[in-house]
Amino acid sequence: MEDFKTKAGNLTDSISDYVQTNYRLAVINAADKATTIAAGTMASLVVLFLGTFVLLFASLALGIWLGDLLDSRALGLLLVAVLYTLIILIVVSMRKKIVFPMIRDSLIKKLYGQNNQNLQ
Hints:
By secondary structure, the chain is mostly helical. The protein contains three helices and no strands. The longest helix has 69 residues, at 2-70. The protein is rod-shaped, with a radius of gyration of 28 Å. The two termini are 49 Å apart.
C-alpha cells in the first residue's frame, strides 16, 4: 500500500510539473509571437515613414517638372494630384479583391509562419 501511495504522489508531482511546463511554454510562445509582430510592425512603420517622405519629394519634383513643361506650376501640381486621385480610386475599388487579402495573408504568415516551417 505504501508503494502505491508513493507512486501516486510521484505521478501527481509529474503531472503538476507537466502542466507548469506547458504553461511556461505557452507564455514563451505567445511572447515570441508578440515580439515578432511588434518588431515587424516597427520596421514597417519606419519604412512607411521614410517612404512617405520619398513619395512627397518625388511628387513635388514631378509636379514642378510637369509645371515647367506646361508653363504653369499649378497645373503640374494639379496633374500630380489627379494622378494620386486615380490611384486612390483604383485601390478603393480593388480593396476587397487585392488589398485586404494581402494584408490578411501577411498577418497570418507572421502569426503562424514559424509553426508552418516546423511542420514542413
